[in-house]
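Working notes for the structural subgroup meeting. M.R. asked for a predicted model of this chain before we commit to crystallization trials. I am recording the input and output together here so anyone reviewing the notebook later can reproduce the run.

Input as submitted:
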Amino acid sequence: MSSQPIKASSVTSASGIKFHKLNTNQWEARDAYHWLLTLHWPQFSAAVFAAYLIINLLFSAGYLLRPHCINGMTPGSWSDAFFFSVETLATVGYGHMYPDTMFGHVVATAEIIVGMFGMAIVTGLIFIRFSRPVARIVFSRTLVLAPFDGKPALMFRVANLRDQAMAEAEFRLMLLRDEPTKEGPSFRRFYQLPLQFDRLISFPAIITIRHIIDERSPLHGCSLADLESGDSRFAASIVGIDTVIPAPVQTHRAYTWKDINVNHRFVEVYHTVDDNALTVDYSRLHATEPISETSAT
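Returned structure, recorded in token form:
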């Protein structure tokens, strides 16, 4: 492997691996819209404020180019030019200062047009950021490998943090590992691991997802050392419908062979209150406990 610094066009992460993309197509102007949607709220607010400040600085410089183009503005006053630009960009127009020459009218007209387009773009971005559904789903930090119903099973937990149940929740678990080929070099293979159940009509709280390791499983006969030698990784995902909006939501989690707790099980999170009520302890979502050899056999 080369130890030289990587000059990548972009970086994408998937299944716990970073992909440094080299020699991709150059950045396009339309990518700015997608980039703004990927920013966190503090970053997005800073980007909008910076754009707003730059636009006003540019137009205020335009007003300063021609003295007396704005009636009521002190010649050479940057503060007057800047705040007149702010008022014009927002189409407020207090009336104390106004364009007095053709040059002033042209610059003010251009700024009003920029303000109209800018307001529409920012409004659309804010609406999408507020309205798009976000799955409040948490995966267990680890996988557990333990017997279930007399057979070894690979398990993980998923928790719905919303007050409302998710509808039509679909779960998936994929194995990624290196395997040698007949030609010699190893090859990265992908296996969809069948689950004990992979769909719930209603997903209200916490559920344990299991892959039974039988003769048909790609993990059959594999030890932890085998998983390590193949750099085995697991990708877990859930897709469902947020019933409040309603809209589809999706999230996923990556695990490696190091995240597997052998001969452990998840501790109980459900406790009965009465015939129609249960308590669910979310603080124990990630908790596991070792199982005795007697219970494992």
